[in-house]
Amino acid sequence: MTLTSCLILAAAVMAIGLYGLVTRKQAVAMLLSVELMANAANMVFAAYGHFRGGPSAQVFVLFALAITVAEVAVGLALVMLLYRRHGDTTVDLASEARQ
Amino acid sequence: MNFEFDLGFSIIAPIIVVSALFVVRAKNLIHAVLWLGATLLGTAALYARLNAPFLAGVQVLTYVGGVVTLMIFGVMVTRRHDGIDAEASSEGSERGLIFASAFFVLLSVVTWKTAPSIPNPAPIATSAQLARVLLDYYLIAFEALSLLLLAAIVGAVVLVRRKDPEAVTKLRQGSALPLINEVES
């Protein structure tokens, strides 16, 4: 296990998350893809923390974890609003709310 | 650049990648959330392999225990009543595949060209060191983060709160479905 292999693993997870974000139309499924991408970023932090040393990288991962949890809470609230307004959670419906 | 064989990593990495693929390809949304749980557990194992046991514990507690549960709640509350409810759109599928593959190739090439080869891993950061840094050097960021979490939770509650008090009494009487139409009108 080298730093490069960890980084390529994180790149793969990030790309998979991007694929999901582009192809999915359901709001909750897009949130799942965003979770994958945030997880990939955390992997990079942890890998650098392991190979470079020092506790700072792990602290960054903890901060990122907390921010992701906040994002999920607000995101799910928006999904519930969308569902309540339209009876469905397809994100295309949200563009109608601009008028 | 030499790749020495590592049993733990070569078990963990395919688990993470395959379950991540299932997250974005699963037809059923509940299955996608459960595959996300598998991905996050694999990541926790990777953290343990990277000598970050505290991170692994926090990952299992907050992500697998908190976020996945929250997501399942979200899926179940917003589910339509007619069977399968999360299909990947087919028309953008090829474009998404090309886009994501190009992104992966770009990241991999950049990583391959620029990542420094560090032969010996650094000494392990213990939990005591982590706590000291978190509550000393990064104290202000830590407190700001707690404020952010509070603001996010209050914001989420405000967003989903029902404005009219009649709706609550109707909900208690067990007529939750007509509420959707009422809000629309």
Q: Can you describe what's shown?
A:
The complex is a heterodimer of chains A (99) and B (185). Chain A has 3 helices and no strands. Chain A has 99 residues and is mostly helical. Chain A has a single domain, classed as Helix Hairpins, CATH 1.10.287.3510. In chain A, α1 packs antiparallel against α2. Chain A is elongated and about 50 Å long. In chain A, 61% of the residues are buried. By secondary structure, chain B is an all-alpha fold. Chain B folds into 2 domains: 80 residues, Four Helix Bundle (Hemerythrin (Met), subunit A) (Up-down Bundle), CATH 1.20.120.1200; 51 residues, no CATH class. Chain B contains 8 helices and no strands. In chain B, α2 runs antiparallel to α3. The longest helix of chain B is centred in the middle third of the chain and has 25 residues. Chain B starts with 6 loop residues before the first helix and ends with a helix. The mean pLDDT of chain B is 81. Classes of the chains: A mainly alpha (99), B mainly alpha (185). Chains A and B meet through α1, α2 and α3 of A and α1, α2, α3, α4 and α5 of B.
Task: Pick out its properties.
heterodimer, A: 99 residues, mainly alpha, Helix Hairpins, B: 185 residues, Four Helix Bundle (Hemerythrin (Met), subunit A), 8 helices
CATH architecture of chain A, by name, is Orthogonal Bundle
Q: Which range does the strand content of chain B fall in?
A: under 5%
Low-pLDDT segments, ≥5 res of chain A = none
Quote the CATH topology of chain A: Helix Hairpins
Main beta sheet of chain B: strand number and arrangement?
none
The fraction of residues in strands of chain A falls at: under 5%
Domain count of chain A, please report it.
1
Q: What would you say the CATH architecture of the largest domain in chain B is?
A: Up-down Bundle
